[in-house]
Amino acid sequence: MPFCLSNINMLNALFKSYTLIVFVAITHARISNRLFTCNNGNKIYDYFACDEIPDCEDGSDEDVNNCNMHLCDGEFSCDSGKCIPDLWVCDGINHCSKGEDEHQNMCNTRVCDDSTLFRCSSGKCIPKNWICNTILDCPNGNDENEFLCNNRTCSVDEFKCKSGQCISENIVCDVRNDCFDGSDENKAMCDARQCFNEEFRCDSGKCIEKNKVCDGYINDCVGGEDESEKICQEKVCENNEFTCKSGVCLKFYWVCDGRKDCSDGADENAEMCKNHTCSDDQYRCSSGRCIEFYWVCDGRSHCINNADEDLDMCRTHNCSEDQFRCSSGKCLAFYWVCDGNNDCPNKEDEDVHMCKVHECDPDQFRCDSGKCLNQDWVCDGIADCPDKKDEDVEMCQKHV
Which cysteines are joined by disulfide bonds (predicted)? Predict the structure, then answer.
């Protein structure tokens, strides 16, 4: 049978479906708060709770009382308590046992986040980068409507494929077809492509940020010219970077960290590290390595000899203004306080009395638990408050 476009589209569609299944599986397998605890203490993935199929040995994942209390994390909640991805809502297929994810009235009035999502006429919300990619993602195919795709406008940091699909400018002319029609790798277009002054042009026509040139990482250009000796010898590193003899620029915290990042090991020279100084807002390890001040007493070792986590030192250590100090000296990010998880060794970041009166800054959002959030985390489609207050539907409808 000839391998025509319809076959390619079918494979692409199957691949996307497989990718979605893997994405959903990974999403529901998050260890932190996506496990369901059975009454007997065993744990199962939260995704399998309240799906009307017992997975706990004692069947408690399908217990009516448990399912009535079951909360979905930024997903659609079926009447049974089962959680399904938003992508499955109003897609023409009943995923909830009673079909409430496909109720006509709900789908007719459903609103999608216009900044990142496209609303199908069925009410299904799909990622905007799925529009005009030659695959029918809306039940009636209106995401591939010819008029829509011909007149579609991509954002300033995107490239418009001939099909109307929008892809990131960063992946154009990278010798890999990211447009389904391959128009992002058109030879004539890539040969004539110009980059901005603050960008570096690869031989293929790909444009990369200049700070990625000679950064010691893997090649960003397909031909590796961004890490070539000739280019790197001519490059000038930033003031807060270390320059290897080869011209490679290293992050300041890679210097004197016990690992050779320069090809000749110059960043770990013993004499240099002995006299290496750090800036006032950095902490100096005995090896000479400089680390961010807020890394000190954060529960993770950044110095070779663990000096930044020394218990005696941490007891008297002062945390930065935007951190919470545990009695052990450990410093926590403010959004770890009153979030329902014990991050301090003595659990004082979740003290009930403290959380009840815990105040947030004027430019922050306060959860009922006492947890403080950045305002841009509110009504972003992801529940950050333990009780999901930041994604309350009525509040978000009024949220600007």
Answer: 38-56, 78-96, 120-138, 154-166, 161-179, 195-207, 237-249, 244-262, 278-290, 285-303, 319-331, 326-344, 360-372, 367-385
pTM: 0.47
CB 154 within 8 A of CB 165: no
Measured between alpha carbons, how far is 336 from 343 in angstroms, rounded to an integer?
7
Tokens of 255: 């210097």
d(CA 205, CA 29): 40
Is 386 exposed, middle or buried (CB count within 10 Å of its CB: 0-12, 13-18, 19+)?
A: middle
Mean pLDDT over 314-338 rounds to 83
Q: Cα 369 from chain centroid?
A: 25
Q: Are strands 290-292 and 282-284 parallel, antiparallel or unpaired?
A: antiparallel
User: Could you tell me whether strands 241-243 and 249-251 are parallel, antiparallel, or unpaired per DSSP bridges?
Assistant: antiparallel
**Cβ atoms 281, 252 nearer than 8 A:** no
Q: Which two tokens stand for residue 390?
A: 């930041």
Alpha-carbon distance of 78 to 244, in angstroms, equals: 58
Q: Which residues contact 147 (CB under 8 A, 6 or more apart)?
A: none
Is residue 185 over pLDDT 90?
Answer: yes
Average pLDDT, the chain: 84
d(CA 123, CA 65): 31
* Beta bridge mates, 107: none
